[in-house]
Design a protein that fits this description.
- This is F plasmid transfer operon protein TraF.
- The protein is built from 6 helices and 16 strands.
- The chain is mainly beta.
- The protein has one domain: Outer membrane protein transport protein (OMPP1/FadL/TodX) (Porin), CATH 2.40.160.60.
- Helix 1 runs antiparallel to helix 6 and helix 4 runs antiparallel to helix 5.
Length: about 375
Amino acid sequence: MQLTRPLLTAALLGLSLNATALPFATYEARSAGMGTTGVASSNIASAPFSNPAMLAAQRFEDDFSLTAGLGVQAIDNENLLDDIEDFNDAYDANDLAGMDAAASRADGKRIDVLGNGALNVGFSAEKWAGAVSANRYIQANSGVQYDASNNGADSTIDLVGLEVTEIGVSLARQFGRFSVGFTPKSQSVTSYDSDSVLLRNTEDLGDLIDAATEEGEKDHGGGVNADIGLVYRLGEESRWQAGVVVRNISEQTYTTSGNRTVKIEPQSRAGLAYNGDVFTVAVDYDLSENDPLVAGGDKTQMLAAGLEFDIFSTLKLRAGYAKNTADVAGPDDDLLSAGLGLNILGLQADAAVMGNDNNLSGFVQLGVQF
């Protein structure tokens, strides 16, 4: 709970992506800065989350990494946050007509949230590589149901989500041009399912989130799952690599306190990358559509591209692009990203932003790498 509420609050109050569903998740700043790519381009710090096989497919001299990072994404469909703010302003001003109009505009709109905190210790040797990683993330959907009585004051915001804590041990091995990686991991799962009145005994949206996560919480205990990946170098001395990864190979189904079904489903992605000394160029594509957390949301199937420019192994400039190719109705899904990495005597700091004209998400990461 200590991580859940700050992530939800920060995402819903300050950050948003103008997209329509929860995509193939990215858990660290380098990948986000490069458009969420990483299947064939991730480094030793990001490989456990992007593709464990990349631990054994490194072309550079880095053989140890200790990193910690935080990321928040919020997907605000049709500017729901603006409607909720208008509702609260009208309530404070005792503007009954304004309350009703704002609640009516918000009817049926959703906010989807993805937030995470991650820690990774990785090593890479000549043929073998491994990592121990911990990741705690939350995926949540919330939507408004309009109630015309009482000038819209009895309208509700419906929240359903999953909080997952993963601890994984990655092992990777190189076989000639091939590298394979496997990450068995434990998963502790908590679900949230709550209908809360838009404004009742709350001073701001943060109070509303606290109430929702307390009232609808259900602990599902622990389980096991796994990620598996493959990387192939296109020639003996080639800088080109192709990769594929399947995340959460075992589907897990949970029933919330409100008797709704939510799932952790397998996700698959392929990637192609050129990993040079100065430039890295990568393209990733989801091999299947990713379902939203709950029924009623839109699916995603992301196409992502990214570029990294390495200046004397000290300053790294990143840029990326991602687009939802699934056939869904909704706002513009074209997302741009930018990132920055700084390495001074093995101390590594990374940051990234991603979004479009009006919306942003943010990622930060600190660690040591050598």
